[in-house]
Amino acid sequence: MTEDSQRNFRSVYYEKVGFRGVEEKKSLEILLKDDRLDIEKLCTFSQRFPLPSMYRALVWKVLLGILPPHHESHAQVMTYRKEQYSDVLHALKVVRFISETTPQVEIYLRMYQLESGKLPRSPSFPLESEDEIFLAIAKSMEEMVEDSVDCYWIIRCFVNQLKNKHQDALPQLPKAFEHYLNLEDSRLLSHLKTCSAVSKLPYDLWFKRCFAGCLPESSLQRIWDKVVSGSCKILVFVAVEILLTFKIKVMALNSAEKITKFLENFAFPV
Questions:
Q1: Which of 87, 83, 89, 117 has its CA nearest to residue 104?
Q2: Residues 222-233: pLDDT tens digits?
Q3: The pTM is what?
Q4: What is the CATH number for 193?
Q5: What's the CA gap between 42 and 69, in Å, rounded?
Q6: Which residues contact 5 (CB under 8 A, 6 or more apart)?
Q7: Quick check: helix, strand or coil at residue 145?
Q8: Rounded to 5, what percent of the chain is helix, strand, coil?
Q9: What do you get for the CA distance between the two ends of the chain, in Å?
Q10: How far is 24 from 26, CA to CA, in rounded Å?
Q11: Which CATH number goes with the domain that contains 93?
Q12: Which chain positions lie within coiled-coil regions (predicted)?
């Protein structure tokens, strides 16, 4: 038996006995042992397979540019990242923008605002829509990443990636959603159009917040693996799958308001 056939046999065997992902984990560990991490290969891996929890933060930090590809530089770079985190945090305390009782996700927001030159004159100023998006993503990320320094940097770079790398693609996702839903279930799409619901679906929740606060953590991690590695189209397929999963319920609703409210508040099976 050749090496490839042995590997394929093992993969099938592992999957049958409930150890799916063993081979994938080994492949990732091999990639992570390189002196200079191959960004393209890590992106490809993240597109094809869910990242193991123990390596997710590291891979995300590398793909988001928080850490450089060279292993030998990781410790030094993270020292710089921690110092910058501490400096920004200290500055916010000095100007009394945050206190000991400020929620951690709000601290992340104020840090991000200060670094991007958008800190309002007072903490009491109403939040902008992009601030609400940041907070939603931060709340979900806080559940995934334990270390506060890692968490802030990942949130910061994840949000910046959405604003910059995916800036042109995100506005096109509602049309792509409509296209793929039509391919999967034209009757369901027709019902949405009849109810004038297509333009009122929770696209901001799905595509700008990347389902933050909408899906369970385990599902969100796998979706964000794909977004971090460069694909926002996964958001379209998830949205289509949600509609197909709740087709019976959606078809029973006869107004755009009811459909939108349901899709904003549904309980997705874990």
A1: 89
A2: 999 999 999 999
A3: 0.88
A4: 1.10.472.80
A5: 11
A6: none
A7: coil
A8: 70, 0, 30
A9: 40
A10: 5
A11: 1.10.8.680
A12: none
